[in-house]
Amino acid sequence: MGIFDFFRSKRGEDIQQIAGQLSCDYRSKDDFGLIKLLADFKLFNSGGRRSIRNILSHDVPSLDCKIWIFDYHYTISTGHSSHTVKQSVFFIQSKELGLPHFHLRPEHFLDKIGSWFGMEDIDFDEYSNFSKAYHLKGADEYMIRKTFSDRVIDYFTSEPGWHVEGLNYYLVIYRAKKLLHPTQLAAFEGKGHEVFQIFKGEGFSV
User: Does 206 reside within a domain?
Assistant: First the structure.
């Protein structure tokens, strides 16, 4: 076994142990077909050689939802070189959600340059700190503005650095290019639940 295979195997074993602590099922590979299920999200259209592994999943009947936490890998190729991006993702499917298609991410300096050329995102004049911290895009601006209520905006203003994508009953949460240590996954699940509760009931009626 090579050193890379050893660490990959060790990570899988550690996450499998965490699964028992969190009362989750564990799968080393994407037996759920999550890649296809999430094909409409921006994250899952990045790069090539996309794969999902080390999957934790469980149902929450009281919330009528199913939750997955997993490692997502994809490869970026530039000319003669390439590198693989690895990150942790929280994904929840629930009929308590009814979300317009949107992508929320941290705002960067290049976004400000883009705004000079008419590449605008959805800003909220009354929440300048949020609009400075985050870049929000989506086709249905009216529904997105309704979904991003005062409490949603207040939450993310105080919680910088997140990427969030929503579509109908699906909500995806992650920090870009950040692969969490297995011991951090319980807190990550808690954060995912928190964001779910913030968005629940803010979209269209289901």
Answer: no
